[in-house]
Design brief:
The complex is a heterotrimer of chains A (196), B (322) and C (812). Chain A has 196 residues and is α+β, with helices and mostly antiparallel strands. Chain A is 34% helix and 14% strand. Chain A is elongated. Chain B is an alpha+beta fold. Chain B is built from twelve helices and twelve strands. In chain B, strand 2, helix 2 and strand 3 form a beta-alpha-beta unit. In chain B, helix 5 packs antiparallel against helix 8, helix 10 runs antiparallel to helix 11 and helix 11 crosses helix 12. Chain B is globular, with a radius of gyration of 19 Å. Chain C has three domains: 194 residues, 2-Layer Sandwich (Aldehyde Oxidoreductase, domain 4); 195 residues, Aldehyde Oxidoreductase, domain 3; 317 residues, Aldehyde Oxidoreductase, domain 4 (2-Layer Sandwich). In chain C, helix 11 runs parallel beside helix 20. Chains in contact: A-B, A-C, B-C. At the A-C interface, helix 3, helix 4 and helix 5 of A face helix 2 and helix 19 of C.
Amino acid sequence: MTTPSYPCPYCAAPFGSHEALKAHVVAGHGAEPLPKPHGLIALTVNGERHEHTVEPNTTLYTLIHDRMGLTGAKMFCDRGACGSCTVIMDGRPVLSCMTLAIECDGKTVETIEGVAAAKHPLIETYVKHHCMQCGYCTPGFVVTAKALLDKNPDPTEEEIREALAGNLCRCGTYPQHPRAVTEAAGLLQGGRHEKG
Amino acid sequence: MKNFGHVNAATLEEAVSALRRYGNRAAVIAGGTDLLGKMKDEVLPAYPEALINIKTIPGLDFIRYEGGTLSIGALTRLEDIATNDAVRNGHAALAEAAHRTASTHLREMGTIGGNICQDIRCWYYRNPQNRFPCLRKGGGRCYAIDGDNRYHSIFGGSVEKGCYAVHPSDTAPALVALDATITTTRRAIRAEDFFQVSAAKTTVLEDDEIVSRIDLPPLVGKSAFVKFALRKAIDFPIVNCAAAIGLSRGKVRSARICLNAVHVKPYRAVKAEEAIIGKAIDEAGVESSAAAAVAGAKPMSHNAYMVPIAKAMVKRALLGCK
Amino acid sequence: MKKDDRERIVAPEHTVRADKYPLDDYTAVGKRVRRKDGYEKASGYAVYASDIQIPGMLHQKILTCPYPNARIAAIDTTRAEALPGVRAVLRYDDPELPPKADLSGHFGQAGQPHEPVLDRCGYWQGMPMGVAVAADTEEIAREALKLVRIEWEARPFNLDPVEALKAGAPLTNPESYPDGNFLLPFMHEKKVTHGDADKGFREAEQTIEFGMRRDQDTWVGPERPCGIFRWNGEYPEVWLKHQRPHLAKRQLAQFFKVGMSQVTVHCPYQGGSFGGWSQMALNMQPNVIAGILSKRTGRPVRWQFSRREDFCGAGMDNARYRVKVGFKNNGEITALHATSWFSREGLSHTDHFVENSKVINIIQESNGAICNIFTGWAIRCEQNMNCYCFSAVMNHVAEALKMDPTELALINDGCEGHAMADIAEWKRKRGFEDRDSLRECIKAGKKAMDWDAKWHLPGMKKLPSGRMHGLGMSWAHEWGDSGGSAAIGIRIERDDGTARVLGLRCDNGVCAETAYCQIAADELGFRYEDVEYRPFEEAGFAPMTPDSSTNLAVNGWAIRNAARRLKQKILEVASLPRVTERPEMGYIPPFEGYRPEDLDVRESRVFVKKDPSKSISMAELVRPAFFMGKMDVGSTEPLFAWGWQNQQGAYDISGPPGPRPIFVRQAHFVEVEVDPETGGIEVTRVTNANDVGKAVNPDAVEGQQYGGSVMGVSRVRTEEVVYCPATGVVLNGNLIDYKINTMLDCGLIDTIIVETAMGYGPYGSVGIGEDVASVVPFAFYAAVHNAIGKWVDLPATPDKVLKALGKVQEAK
């Protein structure tokens, strides 16, 4: 995704963000700050800042999946009942299909691609324990599990099952997930209680 | 999802004035988990012209105890209530109700204000693209009466031959049992008066009225919440029940019992309360109280099975207060 | 090529040979290896058809019928056509549409392979029909459909097969079935008899009769069906979610009258299908329409069903049954008369007695009806009716005799009327070890769940919690629907000597691609790490069943055959002088003077059998002979081989290969707790004991066990498509109201693998993917009965449980 260019209406100098342009207009031209265009949002996705102009009906899922090409978030139920589109927003696991992109201005979002790029141990423990069959719901599980471990580095099996109970898997991989999450928790804690 | 206008409100006043500007053609969005589903399915005959986002209003996300009174901001996420140790100790029924709501994700998104203002789940009402223009949408009749009403009211409709959809909230009965007061941009209302319904509404809120906070008085005694649903997560209740009990020398001194998902609004089981007062919370006491709770049930063609479940929920909520 | 191999290829139907080729030792097969698709799927980088976007693509939506049985009396699309952003509208009366087309790829609805592309009539609420729109966005397409003015002729409908078959019932599909609502059963006669049922009933010491029913469930594939159609000039290029992309390609080529060689079909990973949609005409309908609209607009056209539209993807039979069974006091069943009433699919319901027991005096009657509910098709497997009937009979008889059902199972185990003793003889004659598969499965399963200590008579065990405890067991053979042919290729990469398996993407979640690599590695003598299944994405090399029916048991042969041929080629090449004219480039002839049979491959190295110290790596064997400028010139001929398997099924008792195996069994055990106050059922434990012959990939086998258990329990505990009795409209077409189980709804699951090597697949393996989810539901049925002492129809929701317990007062 290329950063949109923001040309100055006074001198045509290009800026990489609306905020930079605003600062320039105030400082360089002594003009009133520009109003923020409707639908312009700035958010941090996987550690990178992005600006997008979105329609009110654009969901966060559509933004990341269709426009940013972060296709790991999947749409299974489209009504908030399956967890496949989960991303982490400001530390909370949220359903991107039930989140309006226009309400994500200033938010920090982490997707499965970010979790994988950070080499989170969950990825390999998920592979090892065969937590996927068709794999369609898997990224949603991993992201939800990651949010859990961020909050609770040493969850019990019951806590893991509770946390993942909003993620549906039609292939029926459920029994494997607590094993993978427990092992990843152990790895994150330096293998102190690796349970394999 | 069809498009709509969108307003980020900076204050409650801004939100209210935006609502007034749109008349009844705008909707308030907080967690959005209920509203967006309705919009995606185009459930209502009229699509909202605009959504007024109140998540941008500071100061509505808090959980505070002051002198035993619990105050919760309307934008407080259900997960934060469910996992708050003070609430779990002080008002257990509410913490448990929040905990048993939906799933982790929905609790992380959904707010307590939204949970009590949520719309009904009736599968006729919610059928996509306004397939059934029912009484509640200004149409002529309730389709559940002649249809499949396995999840509908066992205590009658909103009016005679009226809407038989049940109130689906898990936290609402807890708030009624705990005698909460709901503060809005206009007034303070006791929870049990908040869920008054007409044929088309679930709460007493006016079109330009927004819930801002909820206060729960100190609980003398114990409270409990139980829920029965087909699945242990995601599901709305088939029946749930909250009870708040004050005990004195082993006998029940005060009781507030509220069922939900059995009636068009949270159903305070006054007869059950009367039946348990002065008795011990034991098998005989809860049995007679539970029987009293459902004595007035008038099940429909497919939902008589909800009666024994409601009875069991009352028993278990009471036993949970032991 | 070895003589045996040649025989297999020339006469591939000789599946009797299946078990004659075990390897001496396995380094990859049967081992727990890192799955090839694991990282892609866990990291979110696996690509599914619904992730694909083509620049400039339009979005297609098809009208769905608002009524369960209706005809379009008049239509006006003017307003839809005028909506800005609408690029094309296609109506049922478009001259380009043939009155009927074969779009099914397999079968449409039972008995009706040819259907209109865009029907004027709808036969269930939600059926895509009438009008299709292609527009700039999905929202615009949807809005346009709302602007179509339609005058509907809504007709009477029927949701119940018993009602639909009554005299004078209104016609449910007057266009295709003008004479009545009767539907012939699928692949069998209306009345089927075996043996002499009258005699059997005369011999019986007891006779019982009972009824049962099951309401409709549906598939809920996670990825909603979708496709993109683009015309590259004369050549169609299609991306789709489909379990049978090779058949989709055939249907598209036929419809658009182009050669199959002109069509490109891409089928990437698919988010779970379980046999739904993709075998039906309805899945091809939107692809064909997208092709027409793409041609008209000159733009790629994408379609995807919404979750609600997807609900009619497939539904197992909502059948009712009446069963009469005669038996002796020792548990031997002597006669069976079972009648079914079903809508739509209607597979046999007594086959398992023939294939899987010594019960031989059978009358089966099947009453099929066309109902105004969505199409029936197999989900996970088509054996549900058989499994239900088999389990119900065994468990009802066990109840009548107060007998432990595991004992009753062993008394009645057999095949085609033969007792196990006859079969033992048959095994010995054909060189099999005489292992009693069912006995082994039952023994292992009972031990795992401590059955003997826990089992009790129905309704007799109340737990301290007040709940009723129940145990149920059901069993089956491995029915192995393994007819079909598979083609697969393996190529050696020229520069580094790694192997790449070529076949279309076969992934439906069963870890098959990994298993193919395991077989290829062991057969080639390669390290597992040196073999990859990178899909030859275009639907050309077609392993038999990307739809997963006995996937490995057929495709495993093809890959094994390909690997053996390729290995032979490698050894031949290794013993030849290499292609080179410039030995000064450092060329050393490998294995000069040796013949292929003197050589072997292990750990991806070719070596001399008599002197393993003489060896070279595959990379050295195929490395470039020399460089011509920057171009390298290969030193060996292209190393490629194909394998093929035309499988007609497994062993039949009567000698020639038939569709049914008889040796391999499975037993499933379910433990429940029923809350008598709420009617809630908690499944606390499921134990699966499957004889899989040989577990090529044990992780995948276990995956099918726990996966099948989860789905199996879900589909009979909470899943039910609810139709409004008054309007015929589906009421719960979403994943909030249609309840597939969550992680908290599944108890402990034991996975026990029994390996008797008596299967029809390579190394004596059999399939497993269809089995567990088809048998477990009816072990659950038995467990609920064992808990409360009453039989509860399926799905066993609380209303039915409480009613069975006499706790529901009928409404006034």
